[in-house]
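Need tokens for this chain, all 502 residues.
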Amino acid sequence: MGLLAKLLTPLSLLKLAALALLYVLTAIALGAGATFYLVRTAGDDAQRGQTVLLAELVSARTREAMLPYQEPLRRLAHAPETATLLAPDKTLQRLKKAGDLKAGRPEVLQATIVPAREFSETELAQHLTAPNARDRQGGFGRLRYHATEPDGLHIDLIEPIPAAADGAPIGATLLRIDGRVLQKIVEHSLPADGQLTLRLAGAGGMVLAQAGTAPADDWLVTVAPVPQAPWELQLAQKPRWPEFANGQRSIYLLLVVAAVLVAIVGVSHVHYLTMRAMDNDIRSIARIFQDMREGNIRVDYPIEFADFRKIFTYLRHSGMKLVKQQQRLRSMGLIDHLSQQHNRRAFEKRLDALFERARSTGPSSVLIIDLDHFKQVNDNYGHDVGDNLIVGFSEAVKRLVRNTDFLARLGGDEFCIIFPHIDLERAISRVAALRHELPEQIVLTPSYQHPLRWTGGLAVIQDGDAHPDEVLKRADQALLKAKEAGRNRTFYYQHPLGVRAI
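Here are the structure tokens for all 502 residues:
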């Protein structure tokens, strides 16, 4: 190992990869004769694994095939004007609007917009008001499969039309697509030989598509469920078993054992070297960021991966620039002394600059945040614990917002985030992600974890704004409505609809 250690110094990912390749090649050489034996004992598992991979491939290709239909269908269902077409006297307008989805697509058999009153109670519960777990996770959306006349096998894509007030569906948009799209997917997924069958899951499930050669009685048949769809995929292939000469089994077993031992030792050795180097370099990265926080960057940091030297050099130079910038900002009075984030003065300067450039670079969005029941923390645990809450919250938010976003503490428990050149729709998505990713609790003392609750108001700079304060007023209105609604939530102001919940 002494010679090997010299060859690996200095350590690099390329050398580790070469060492791992050496171990793998050695294991392959020792196990070459055992390959046929392993194939014989694992033939069934191999085909089952192939079936699982093919099922995943069919799932991915179906998602890809359905996407051009699902996205326009979803946009139509969520368009505000679609809800107005559900009135009984809007039948012709509904037909024309739905016909736009079908135009130029011969594979689309039917496109309709259906009010909820035209669904049966069973259909309403199954497809609109109670989507199952696969629907909620994305999957293929709400879809059904039919083999009824006159269209034969076809696929129904359904997207509920939500109500403006409580989100309950008031109707649905539907596309009926020629089911032969599944036949093409199965044909493209068929391996070199065998037969591939796609059918509905369960005993006696209807065959949706089939391709390949009809199987013989001695063929191996394996079945796997198709992810995120109510299907199963069946693969039928002729079994392939290697032939062995007499007395060779013991040799194959010895080769397998030797190959496994070499692989285990080799992988363990590479893993040890990699983890040791990563542990050292991660500690160095942590020291860089700790030193940046303390405002004292060292001359050098010990690393083992030669590949990371450029990265460490870049981090060190960037850290030195950041420390100097922080010192300069502190000297200018633009940093809040407690949270170490931008203060109100810095916030106003940044908002003024973005307001002036809004017409040329696009609107920016502003989120005002209040910590819920902050006064109770001060009253019950003292101002030191309240300060810990301010610091902990600001650090948690700073870790989640992007480098281009602007975080400031306006005073007390009030914070503000500016999303530069981000319109209201994208800002709503950012805020929803922020609320989802922030921790549920913050450790304020060794014996006390405070539940993290905050209320937000979001607004965007509008073309008609004469002063930056106008967007702040709208954000304050949304914040006040969010507090009146029970706190721990975010409302946004959208012209001309007013204040709405995220």
